[in-house]
Amino acid sequence: MELLWGSSHISGGNAAYVEDLYETYLQDPNHVPEEWRTYFEKLPQVNGNVRQDIPHSTIRDHFTQLAKAKIKPLSVESDSGITDHERKQVRVIQLCSAYRQRGHQQTKLDPLGLKVRAPVPDLDLHYHKLSAADLDTVFQTGSLFIGKDQATLKEIVDSLEQTYCNTIGAEFMHIVATEERQWIQQRMESVRSKPAFGDDVLLHLHERLTAAEGLGKLLASKYPGVKRFGLEGGESLIPMMDAMIQRIGSYSAKEVVISMAHRGRLNMLVNVLGKNPSELFDEFEGRAEYHGSADVKYHQGFSSTVETPGGEMHLALAFNPSHLEIGAPVVEGSVRARQDRREDPEGKKVVPLILHGDAAFAGQGVVMETFQMSQTRAYKTGGTIHVVINNQVGFTTSKREDARSTEYCTDVAKMVQAPIFHVNGDDPEAVLFVSQMAVDYRQQFNKDIVIDLVCYRRRGHNEADEPSGTQPLMYQQIKKQRSTRDLYADKLIAQSLISKEYDTEVIENYRRALESGEHVAKSLVHEPNETLFVDWNPYLGHDWDCPCDTRIELKKLQDVAAKINAVPEGFPIQRQVGKIYEDRRKMAAGATPINWGFAETLAYGSLIDSGNPIRLTGQDVGRGTFSHRHAVLHNQNDASIHVPLQHMAEDQPNFTIHDSLLSEEAVLAFEYGYATTMPNVMVIWEAQFGDFANGAQVVIDQFITSGEHKWQRLCGLTMLLPHGYEGQGPEHSSARLERFLQLSAEHNIQVCVPTTPAQVFHMLRRQSLRPLRKPLIVMSPKSLLRHKEAVSTLEELADGQFQNVLAETDSLNAEKVTRAVLCSGKVYYDLRETRREKDMDNVAIIRLEQLYPFPEQELEQALAPYAELKEIVWCQEEPMNQGAWYSSQHHMRRVIHKHNRTLYLEYAGRDASASPAAGYMALHVAQQQKLIAEALGFE
């Protein structure tokens, strides 16, 4: 700010002029030119006031005067030493507070006028023991920002009514921070929530409303009855978005990432992001090109670049399924990735802007989870601007007592003390005012803010729907309701700003532009600067089995081990953790075999050493749910932390590790969004138990497994899901392997079940180093983390590679083998232990370490030595209707048929069950012993 103040056009002889302008602004913002009002509104503030280090003597004097005018709390009734006027003065202050608290309950928010709101006693003069007889009495205005220290009660009430009870309802008194409340009060009260906009601004509003309505009308005439989830009734959204984008750009932001469901999406694409109308028409008429299975047109994403007062700004509208709000955390993840790429820790350069539906905002739990993430270290994005397109009907549930339990659909936002502005969609100037205020608040305080755009939907839920069947009274009114655009045009005509002829010309010009296939978005940049875009070319066009060398020189591996095992001098760590690190030093020296936790950590360290960033999050990832990782060390004296993986070298890439909030759905969606935006970063989400991924099934179904084919978005996200039957019951055994295999098709994901430390080492390195970007689903272990035989050597890490199939490792005479057991995961060690106990040299055990894509060729090679096979069995711990059996048996049979046409694949495992696992240890042990016996062929 000091630099700006010292610039040539503000300093020197112009300083007095600017100070006078600012003094005028403080008295009445509408009395200064709009460009100066915008500048003053964006000044940095402290405690609701302009920063005191700016050399405005008049500004300092003004706030000193305001401070002196504030009334000290008094006991109105009991203090006999005060006058009647002083008592009333206190009541006036209480009245002001009541308007700020509850004025929103008396606003004119419903464009249809159907909502009858109950009177609010707190806003009545008599409630505060005041009356009409006091209206002409002069009182001190206290903290009321109306430009003067004293005013009549009538002036005060009129000001409060105009500010808080017109077409804007403000909820902000739940905010704890005084400076934020004062900031909002000053912005609203100083202009009575109705700033004076210049003629050019009003004409732009008119044009944008005409565009919003014009597209809806044209689509209705060209494609009647076709679903398009139009914006009709909520056209103010288009000038709102236009205003916010330009305002964000004025802060020199470089990107805005937008999430929205289907309502109004086509209008946004054409009128805000600049999609060519002819492309949209081609999609309606079935002439558009598509890749993969594609998605409907009102779910597709789009990006463009627009010119703003702060320069070029990139806009990205994210793809979104019909799960409505699930797109919000995905966008937050994408925004965080873009901020990290731009080294923007405060979130000033990349801004998330999320559009919601009223019923979804109130009804879907992922909204709460996303709000809860907003100020956490791992997931903050510098504040999100939320816009609720509130058409007052979710689907057909119009009665509030059926749709929610709260007064407003936006009440959930109060959990993070976000200010909420309800605004009547039929008042475009009020919409513009709250749009500007929302952007300024976000940029000033880096917190979430919500705009509730109260409107209606003219054509029902979709254009094939007849809404009067369920909302007869609402749609009787809607049929009579003039559009927002027409009402605003009438207002401008009445003000003599435009003529009827001009209005007609604007309508016709827009229609002609649409029909001729011209871009109709304003400020569109047709040749944007692409230097800061992510280059995805290195990750395109690769075959599934593209080669990848995951080996590493032994000396380099030991150097990495030394760095990640280093504990700073004088940094006391807990005794058991110290033992883990001492054991790892022995492993690095080759004195003892390498266990799972160290192999995984070595994989991360080796990737960082070679320049590959990593992001690892989950509910317990710092130490690992089963205390195997301990990537984050905790000082036992002062609770400070040290992460060795972050201190390998001064110029190393980022290693980000955060314990997440107790969420699966929003957190996994966030990480998916991050991974789709930063292909060079290895993004890992670990579930506390694999079963907990259930809570994020929408993300898995709608994004992770299908996103590439629906939206052509590559994603290299890795999911670590602890899986294995150790008698811990039905909620802590199964990561639902069967669900991932059922969703596997067209090489969309990788599903791996590694059983050795060397395998996890090479699997993780392969995922990061090869240019293929596919989600990796890992059934990671629990008991194997400390199994005495689940170990590897340094040489296996240095010289090996990930093997999709692990052939028999014990020394068996292949000619004696008559039975082969195929399996995945922990059960291998149980099978091998029992085979050794019973000295069964006729049974070979083959591990499938990757279940999808199924490794048919490698399995053929593993079976090839056994020409005398008489029996072959698939063994799994999961019940028959779960696990890999149903999804993978056809692959196994195809391989077996090639090996020996007479062989029949048998099943050994738990019986089909509605529950994933037994809850009693005795039952678990009995089931486990039975399936092992069946697999090995003895009773």
Structure description:
It is a single chain. Mean pLDDT is 90; it is low at 1-13, 51-55 and 57-76. The protein has 4 domains: 2-69, no CATH class; 199-223 and 232-284 and 295-515, Thiamin diphosphate (ThDP)-binding fold, Pyr/PP domains (Rossmann fold, 3-Layer(aba) Sandwich); 554-799, Rossmann fold; 805-936, Multifunctional 2-oxoglutarate metabolism enzyme, C-terminal domain (Rossmann fold). The longest helix is centred in the first third of the chain and has 24 residues, at 199-222. 39% of the residues lie in helices and 13% in strands. The strands form 6 sheets. The chain has an 8-stranded mixed sheet. By secondary structure, the chain is α/β, with parallel strands linked by helices. It is built from 32 helices and 26 strands. α22 (596-609) runs parallel beside α27 and α30 packs across α31 (885-899). β25 (871-879), α31 and β26 (905-910) form a beta-alpha-beta unit. Residues 594-787 form the Transketolase-like pyrimidine-binding domain. It catalyses: N(6)-[(R)-lipoyl]-L-lysyl-[protein] + 2-oxoglutarate + H(+) = N(6)-[(R)-S(8)-succinyldihydrolipoyl]-L-lysyl-[protein] + CO2.
